[in-house]
Each structure stands twice: as C-alpha cells, then as structure tokens.
From TrEMBL, chain A:
Gene3D superfamilies: Acyl-CoA dehydrogenase/oxidase, N-terminal domain (1.10.540.10), Butyryl-CoA Dehydrogenase, subunit A, domain 2 (2.40.110.10), Butyryl-CoA Dehydrogenase, subunit A, domain 3 (1.20.140.10)
Annotated Acyl-CoA dehydrogenase/oxidase C-terminal domain residues: 228-369
Species for this entry: Halomonas korlensis
Domain Acyl-CoA oxidase/dehydrogenase middle: 122-209
Protein name per its UniProtKB record: Acyl-CoA dehydrogenase
Automatic annotation (TrEMBL), chain B:
Name by which UniProt lists this protein: Acyl-CoA dehydrogenase
Keywords: FAD, Flavoprotein, Oxidoreductase
InterPro entries reported for this sequence: Acyl-CoA_Oxase/DH_mid-dom, Acyl-CoA_Oxase/DH_mid-dom_sf, AcylCo_DH-like_C, AcylCo_DH/oxidase_C, AcylCoA_DH/ox_N, AcylCoA_DH/ox_N_sf, AcylCoA_DH/oxidase_NM_dom_sf, Mycobact_Acyl-CoA_DH
Reported cofactor(s): FAD
UniProt domain Acyl-CoA oxidase/dehydrogenase middle: residue ranges: 125-217
Annotated GO CC locations: plasma membrane
Pfam family, one: Acyl-CoA_dh_M
Family as reported in the entry's similarity comment: Belongs to the acyl-CoA dehydrogenase family.
Gene Ontology MF term list: flavin adenine dinucleotide binding; oxidoreductase activity, acting on the CH-CH group of donors
Ranges for domain Acyl-CoA dehydrogenase/oxidase N-terminal: 6-119
Domain Acyl-CoA dehydrogenase/oxidase C-terminal span(s) in chain numbering: 231-395
Amino acid sequence: MDFSLTDEQRMLADTLERLIADRVAPDQRRAMLEAPANERSALWRTFAELGLLHLPFAEEVGGLGGDGTDLMLIMRALGRGLVPDPYLAGLVLPGDLLARLGDAGQQARWLAPLLEGEHQLALAWQERDARYDAHGIVTTARRDEDGWRLNGGKQLVLNATSAAALLVTARHDDGRLGLFVVPADATGLTRRDYRTIDDQTASDMTLDAVSLSDDACLSRDAAQTLDATLALGRAALCAEAVGAMEVACEQTLDYLKERRQFGKPLSSFQSLQHRMVDMHLHLEQARSMAILAATSLDCPAAERDYRLAAAKAYCGEAARFVAEQAIQLHGGMGMTDECHVSHYAKHLVMFDHYLGDSDHHLEHVSDHLVDVM
Amino acid sequence: MNLTYSAEEQAFRHEVRDFLATSLPDDIRERVRLGRRLSADDHVHWQTILGGRGWLAGNWPKTHGGPGWSPVQRHIFDEECAAAHAPTVVPFGVNMVAPVIIKFGSEAQQRHYLPRILANQDWWCQGYSEPGAGSDLASLKTRAVRDGDHYVVTGQKTWTTLGQHANMMFCLVRTDPDARKQAGISFLLIDMASPGITVRPIITLEGAHEVNEVFLDEVRVPVANRVGEEGEGWTCAKFLLTHERTGIAGLGHAKQALRHLKSLAIREQHRGRPLLELASFRQRVVKVELELMALEVTNLRVIAAARDGGAPGAESSLLKVRGSELRQELSDLTRRALGPAALPFLPDFLHGEADLDDPTQAESAAGAAQYFNRRKLSIYGGANEIQKSIVAKTILGM
C-alpha cells in the first residue's frame, strides 16, 4: 500500500502546476475560449514539448508508459485550471483505442501524429437513444464491395471540430460492436457544432452512407476494449473533478475570509464554517475515490468496472455538492459570470453528464452489489 | 500508487485470522455476534488470551511490551477482530491512559502501571466529562486542593463508561482555580476504592448499563499519582485526542456491519422476494457501499501517512465524522431490515444472562437497541459538530 508519488511524478505535478498558473490564468482562459478552435494550439504545442502527449501511452506504441497515477496527476492539474484543451477527448480516449486495437498501418497513420501533436482526434460513442450506454447503439456498419458503409447518428462528440478523424462505433450485421476511423472530411458526415454550458466544444453528427475503405475498420468486436477505454476516461474525469473541487473549495474559503458582514468576516460564522468543512469532506472522499479509480484500471474487468462505477457516481454527487455550496457561500457573486468560481461550479455540476451520470453508475453498482460480499 | 497490501501484511492478516479462529472462545464470539452485553469476566478472559499472545497492546512501543506493529498492522488487526466477532479491547487502560503514562509519566509510574495493564490487573475508567463540562471540557470544575502529600478531590464526573468494573480512574481535575481555564487542570490517577467515591449507574435509552456517574467527596489522592506537572493535565488530554486515532472511523466494524446487513437483506423477505430486491432499500445499501469504499481509502491514506511518520491530526476528525455517520446509517438500515422483528425489547437477554427459546428471535434481538446505542458515536469523543469546528480552525484556518 503506497500513496506516495515517485520523484518523476512529483516533478510532473510541479511542472504542470506552474505551467497552468502561467498560461491558463482565468483571463487567459477566457481568451483561449474565444479563439477559434484551430488557433488554440500554443498550449498543446507546449504539452507536446513536455512529453505530455506521449505520457499516457504504452512504450510499444511510441508512448512513455505512464500509468493511472500519472494520468490522475495530469487530469487533476488540468481540472485545477479548467484547461480548455481537449487532453482527454482529443488525445487520451481515441489514442487509447488506437493503441489497443490499431494495426501497424493504422497506428502509423493516426496514432503517431496524435502523439507528436500534429493532429487531434475524437471519439464518437454516444447516441441519443442509448443515453449513456455505449453498447446500446443503432448506428450500423455494412460491408460493401469497396469497403464499409456507415449509417446513423452520434451525440455529444467532444472535440469533433478540431479532429482530423473520428473514432466511430457502429453495429455489424452480426450484432457485434465495430470501431472505425472516419476522416473528418468523409462524404456523408455532417456535424452540428455547439458549445456546452461548461465550455466544451462538442458536436452532434449524422452519418449518411459514409463510405470507408477496408483499413478504416479498427475492430469488428470492440465492446470489451471500449469498456476499458471508457473506464480510463472515467478515472481521468474523476481526477479532473478533484482538481476543480480543490479550486472551488480554495476560492470559497478565501471569499469567506475576505468578505465581511455584520462587522466581521463570514468565516467567523459557525454555520458557514461547518458548511465549508462539509465541502472539504466531500473533496477528500472524492479524492479517495479518484485514487481508487486510478489504481483499479489494471484489475480484472468486472472488478475494474465496479470500482469505476462507484467512483464516478460518488464523485458526481460530491462535485455537485461542492459546486452548489460554492455558489451559495459566494452569495450573489457566485451567480455571476465574472466570478471564477461560477465556471468551476458549472463544470463540476456538468461532470455528471460526461461518460455516465450517477444514476447510470449507481445502477451498475446495484446490479453487482452482492457479487462483492 | 497502489492500494494493495504487501505480502507480509497479507501474511499477518492470515496469522491474525487463524489466531482468532482458534483462540476466541465460542461463547464470547456468540455474545458479540448477537449484540449481547459482555460481562467483566468475558472482557478480562479475552484480553488475557490476547495478552498471552502479546497482542493486547497493539499501539505500544516494543520497549514497553507492545508487539511493535505498524499502523497498517494495527488496522488489519482491528478489521479481523471485527470480522471474527471478537470483543473490542476495553480502551481506557491499554489505549488511553497507557500512552499518556508512557509519554508523560514518571519512571515509577511506568514501572508500576504498565505491567499491570498488560496483565489485566487494573480496570481503568475515564474521568473527563462533568455535568457542566461536555463539549466544553476545559470548563470542568472538579477541584483538587493540595494538602501535604495529597490532593483532596471533590466534584462529579459523568458518562464514565464501564466505570462499574473499574478499580482505577484517570481524571482531569482543577488544581488552580485562578489560572486560565486550560492551564489550571492536572491529570490524576485515582484508586476507585478510595473513601469518598460513589459510582451510580446511568441507564441509557436502550436499557443498557454502560455509563455511570462518579461522585468524588473529599477523596485523598497521593501527589505521586499526578501524571506530568501540575497544570499540565490539558496537554495530556490533548495528546490522547491526537494519539493513534487512525482507527477512529471504526472501519472494521462498518465493514462487518455491511456484510451482516447484506446477508440480512437477502434472508428477509418482502412480497416473497429478498428485501434486497426492494428498489428503495437496495438504493440505500448502494449508497452505504459507496461511502464505505471512499472511507476505506481515506482511512488507508491517513494510516499510510502515519506509517511514513506523519501524525494524524485533524484528519482524524474527518474520519470520525464520516465513520460515525456511516456506522449510524448501517445501524439504521439493519434495524429497518429486521422489520417487525426489531420491535420486541428483550433486556434480560441483551443485557443479562436469560436465554431465548426462539433462535430467530435471538438473531434480531439487538437490532433496535444497537441502533439507539450507536447514536453515541456522533456524540462521544468530541461531538461531530466539535470535530467540524476543529477542522474549520486547524485545517481551514477559519
């Protein structure tokens, strides 16, 4: 049992903390969000120079062999800065699938440039009628004489606007879940782009007889691999939420110490002290769950998914609690766009809507409740 | 990072488990399992067995006769004891007064008291709370007036757990009424057989005699029984509150309670199906499962920090708050799971020696009583509201 960081991990955390403090201060972040998506690349280039784009991938595919703890440290730092760059959606999730499923040619074409920062990708796994269920999709993949033909629609594809290609799940005639690389400019692919309420760049997509060559198919049976990748994504999101919760707590505490009413600082009122402690308790318990998630990625699938579901559900509820209290304790200021904490609060509440919400994951825990007696 | 126990730690867990399987007397195990009161003899019997194995004083340093366990080993030991329905070691001697004597006591006090604690020759109780000094402990009024080689102690202590069995009490008394309130307090070791001491039972809402009032009327206590300097009693008391509190969440008990709850909710029937399939009930069990998972990792973080040389300070307040809330929720769900069978009140069985004809009634007899008993968890040892104020002050600087 070991909760300590290696020297390299401590250096990584320090480097990221400095980088984000220098480059993603709140005013800089506003400017980054206002820039067109394809111009928002200065920080990404720095990530590439620091090796951050290589870190989460195995050495066999050209990565640096980082583990769940490394990813946790990176995501926590990104969460502290609410960094807009799509580290998870544009790099980790599609890259992980390519690393696990791609052949040499597919990896050379799509993964190697991803790790070099030459392009970004996106993962299209969600569909309107399947809600958070990655397996219950209806987009189809049919074999034809030239290759593959995809029909259907995808929802909430993060980073599609900046992606050179999309990894798209589609169902084969035999019912199995296939995975395809769809170039962003493929004929028949249309996107409706939008900004989420917490400032993510996302798109809904229609695939109308999208023709793909043979080598676009990454796997004809990707279900289990997709589960592993989504588990990785959930662990990353939990860590990111912990980073954002830290800042929401810090800013709220600072505000309570500064703001005076009735002739004394708000921090001297016991009801507010106890509420602040409750936020802190939620943060520390969520941090424990994020650690559990990060260290469970190599467990057998059933155990991994049980723990990840528990962690994601728990962090979802903790994040909402911290967000709502942060707004409440900031009073009217917490309601303003100008106040930084409101941006953290938005991201923390909407955390629950990415990669499955608390109800979705509680159902998984509930279904397996007696397996772990 | 990794959350797995080392091979040595897992071997230790098996060693403890094997020991408990062979050495814990069946009648004691059964009384604990059913939530019945243990007699003083039961406690002494079990603690003598533990002492014989060298495992009574898990948190003592080796130099004073402890086993030299790491915080991780102590945690494993506590988990296995709870899982095996072993009695909790009565903490007042081994875990409370002994560390104070080791830290602040004279050599003579250490030589006299520590071996007696290890040999279960003394039963200690705690004289801290008073009718007018609960959360505000430092406002205590029990007076100790110097008279030659003695203090003459007069006052009243309360909530004295298992004081009815005790022959010794460690006691906070006011030796200087004019000093600032914490500064006037001293730490005395008092022989319960001294003239002027009266112990009266307090019966708690579930019908148990667990706590007492202790009246002290001009009780003469040798000055040699003072631990530390005069006026240093608060330092001793505070040391106790931060010393080795890595077990304060009661994690082993919570895990055992959750296992019991699940098996109970599978056995109990609702419309011909296991209660655990009732959605609203199952949902609450799921919430407890998650809270326990999070608390276990938080507890392991604190234990690992203690192992690596950090002193668990205010973090133990977090463990206490969440641990007590969790155990209370578990006792609530257990009571609910029993349904109508939770209602019969059987004090002669729970708190006495009477047998029951009906074995199923015995299985459910303690459910409601334990629910009410567990309300104490968020009150004693510094109420949860006090713990939150400690965190606000010491961690958050409010």
